[in-house]
Amino acid sequence: MKTSTKLAAILVGLFSTLASADEATTLRMGGDFTHYKNKSAIYSVGFEDFDRDNFGTKLEVGAYTDSDPGHVGAPFGSVLLGKRFGSYEGLNATGFMGCAIIGSTDQVLGSLFEFTEEAIVGYKNVGLGYKHVSNAGLASPNHGRDYVSLTVAFHL
User: Fold this and answer.
1) What is the C-alpha to C-alpha distance for residues 156 and 21, in angstroms, rounded to an integer?
2) pLDDT of 18
3) pLDDT digits (tens, 9 = 90+) for 102-140
4) Which of 49, 64, 108, 148 could form a disulfide with 42 if both were Cys (CB 3.0 to 4.6 A apart)?
5) Domain assignments of the chain as residue spans, ordered by start
């Protein structure tokens, strides 16, 4: 079986599991609008699941691109814990912290294991987000990547 077929099967299974979890499960997709030296972008899809107290988890897969010499784009996967304030019926804000595995190191990120933080402020299901990825000085280099993105959350 091809790797892409296996990945698609895993994502469908994950989506099915999360979609049946509770009323606060969402699918969030985002794209980057700011670029590190105008040569980098990030795209991802994440599954968020919050309990009645608005504490939750996010599983995310995506990729970032980087065309600067010595830099590379790579796929990534992350697991994050978070807190949401407000609801998707009005103003809302969400913060996440977690860890990520990236597909390749380069002159910006020197480790396959990274930490990630994310903050999203939105109205209803559209938000403006900030994401930071770095290895917290565990490996060199550790310049980190910062992105501002537009996100859309689909309530499941």
Assistant:
1) 9
2) 43
3) 999 988 889 999 999 999 999 988 889 898 999 999 999
4) 64
5) 3-155
* Token reading at 2: 């091809």
Tens-place pLDDT, residues 72-93:
889 999 999 999 999 878 999 9
17 C-beta neighbours (distance < 10 Å), count: 12
CA angle 115, 120, 124 (to 5 degrees): 150
153 contacts 88 by C-beta, under 8 angstroms: yes
Quote the CA–CA distance of 48 and 50 in Å, as a whole number: 7
Burial readout 104-143 (b: 16 or more C-beta within 10 A, e: otherwise): ebbebbbbeebbbebbbbbeeeebebebebbbeeeeeeee
Strand partners, 79: 59, 99
CATH of domain 3-155: 2.40.160.20
Q: HSE, CB side, 13 Å, CA atoms: give it for residue 110.
A: 9
Total-model pTM: 0.76
Task: Report the run of H or E that residue 9 belongs to, with start and end.
Answer: helix 3-19
Tell me the per-residue pLDDT of 62-71, one tens digit each, with 9 for 90 and over: 888 877 777 7
Residue 41 to residue 149: CA distance in whole angstroms: 9
